[in-house]
Amino acid sequence: MSTGVAITLGAVNVEADVPRTLAAFWAELLGGAVEGDSDEFVFLPAREPGGFAMFFQRRTGPRPDRQTQHLDLTVPWGTREAEVRRAVGLGATPRWEVLDEVPWVQWSTLTDPEGNLFCIAEHPPTS
């Protein structure tokens, strides 16, 4: 039995009404270029080693009433508001902000162009 952990996050899979369009939004937001583009599937590779890829596939059923998972994206302290404005300029919709619930993080929750939740978070510098 191995004593080390070898599991890493390889990709986040997203069902989309229009995979190409949603992948283009995420490529602009996260940086990188869409690859493996077809009518039903689109791939956005990890931007850097240790990062995560995103795989978009055409939605096969109705959108669930409640999203049970979402991405938490981290930005350097003091840049969250600018990154939220950039995301909105790319097509995201602001939903709410949590600025004083806990002292170790502030975040803004948004939705991508198809309504999928994600957060942009910043953590204060440690002293």
UniProtKB/TrEMBL annotation:
Pfam families: Glyoxalase_6 (PF18029). It comes from the Bacteria. Residues 8-123 form the VOC domain. SUPFAM superfamilies: Glyoxalase/Bleomycin resistance protein/Dihydroxybiphenyl dioxygenase (SSF54593). This is VOC domain-containing protein. It comes from Blastococcus tunisiensis.
